[in-house]
Design brief:
Blueprint: H1 5-15, H2 29-44, E1 51-52, H3 56-72, H4 77-85, H5 90-110, E2 119-120, H6 123-142, H7 153-156, H8 159-170
Antiparallel strand pairs: 1-2
Helix pairs in contact: 2-6, 4-5
Length: 171
């Protein structure tokens, strides 16, 4: 599969009970590793600075559309190319959409579209995601997914907490 953050986030969302596609309900340890590894590297090289961007709702909506666009063709441009190579004509639309988006992006930037600069914020804000991932790691270790079961039920209990976290991060 390689590393596809769109696919991995879809799997994490399933593990938290945010969708019901049983085959992709799996807490991806790679995402936990990315977040915790980045935090450790930032502290080792004294680069940790908690920053928050402006317009969080706009950033969230743009991210939602980016993820939907990525997942329409199973996650990434590589898979769209592989689907096209396998004779799936629908992949043409995915590749055209990708090319169109790449073409359109610079036009927005040249038109001075800007969400504003990221600004320094409290250190605790920078720790929210790593602590969440650490919590998921602890739950994965204490309650591992059982072979033959489609998902780990304990992680889907975290759904109300993840909704509260999302709400707080957007406000």
């Amino acid at each position: 599969m390689g590393i596809c953050v769109a696919c991995f986030e879809r799997d994490v969302a399933g593990a938290l009970g945010l969708h019901r596609a049983a085959v992709v309900q799996y807490m991806r340890p790679e995402i936990i590793g990315f977040v915790l590894g980045s935090l450790i590297a930032a502290y080792i090289f004294k680069e940790f600075r908690a920053r928050a961007g402006s317009a969080p709702i706009v950033r969230f909506i743009l991210g939602v559309f980016a993820m939907i666009g990525g997942l329409v063709f199973l996650g990434c441009p590589w898979r769209a190319v592989l689907r096209f190579a396998a004779g799936d004509g629908n992949a043409i639309f995915g590749l055209l959409g990708l090319i169109g988006g790449i073409w359109l992006g610079p036009h927005f930037l040249k038109g001075r579209y800007n969400l504003g600069r990221a600004q320094a914020t409290h250190t605790t804000v920078g720790w929210l995601m790593p602590l969440t991932m650490l919590g998921f790691l602890v739950l994965m270790l204490i309650f591992p997914q059982i072979q033959g079961q489609k998902k780990n039920g304990v992680l889907s209990i975290v759904y109300p907490v993840s909704c509260m976290y999302l709400f707080l991060s957007l406000s």
